[in-house]
Amino acid sequence: MRRREFILTAAGLGAAVGLAACGQNETSTPPGASGAAPSSAGEITGEVKVTYQQFGNSKVQANFLNGWAKKFTAAHPQATVKLQPITASENDYYTKLQLSMRSPRTSPDMCYEDTFLINADIAAGYLTALDDRISSWPDWSQFKETAKTAAQALDGKTYGIPDGTDVRALWFNKKIFEKAGLPTDWQPKSWNDIITAAQTIKQKVPGVIPLNVYAGTGVGEAASMQGFEMLLYGIPTGTLFDKPSQKWVVDSKAFTDALTAYEQVWSQDLGPTPQQALAPTWANTVAQELLPQQKLAIDLDGSWLSNNWLESGAAPWPEWHTTLGNAYMPTQNGEGSGKVTMSGGWTWAIPKNAQNPNAAWEFIKMLTSKEGELEYDIKNVQIPVRTDVATDPSYLKANPTNEFFSNLVESTIYRPAYAEYAKISLLLQQATEKVITKTATPEEAAKFYTDGVIQIVGQDKTTTI
Asked: pLDDT digit string (tens) for 254-282?
């Protein structure tokens, strides 16, 4: 993937200056907790520094990590865990994490690493391969092959242990649909069906945003994956990377069609204002304010969204499962299987400059054990990557949406996990931003993307489909 320098925009550099203040540090104390067996790998001592992204007001991951830190220190009384949350937008999180990993003085011992960044961070020399550790870890056999592949780099080695995956689909407010005279078991069969529903809502239910599709650099990868790629890959010829030729696709009609869908939404005022959509906190505003307050009718978003509305979430909302419905995202005109979804996921990785890698590995094993992942996947509404978690009755009945989203995995698409992807993802965000701010037509924004990709990978590494 990219060398991380691409993120060092003016905003990223400004955020990086405040690295030391990127979040409040939390250090576990070794209470008399139980639930973890002593390690067979020898005595574990010292401090384990853990860096992860703090998503808005959500404390799900912080609470999860704090609980397991206590179990870890109970099992290893000579060790402590120091949590280092980074509260930032996605792009700023990646920047701050990269900067911290460069030096042994600032590097965490383990970090929360998005799967699409693994190859970029390997190319930059930031991560350590885990194959020698995995070879003697029986639990690795419980991980699904697709999950193992997502955590594997182009050199064939594994650099992260996944803790769950996800998919994307449509969330819609059944009460707003009822007011608009639309069916509450809605399932669009084409993009036009979505636009028509949004137009109806705008006309009959004023005061709500009809449709949210993520766009722009403010929300980072959400604009690329939840937004643009969910459109692009719903077109028969739509793809970012042509596997047979091993080249990046440029100058394609499918790319322009996807941008034209953005133009259609924003030219008719069916979405948020550009100022709203471009705010770095927009994704949290959608999940923690607009949906619970019933001010948004349709949202193209992730399977994890309901973790915000659980009792332990950032915006508890007991009625969410009766108020909201789900529909799969249709292909452009119902082609192929008729549906499209994208999967991502995060891993726990160990930086090369980690000062306590052995202790970090023991903590990672705890977090990604069956007990650890079962707890996390339930509380954070993740799709399991361990087979023993996926079949556990407590997971299956934990959330009303688990079955719907799990069934989408069979038809999912993964981002092209190459070192250049992160730079190319930024181009996607910029292209959508140009369209929704009306500073470029879809054709002009597509040319901007084409020129940018050629500059990144070279003319000989591109093709047209």
From this structure: 999 999 999 999 999 999 999 999 999 99
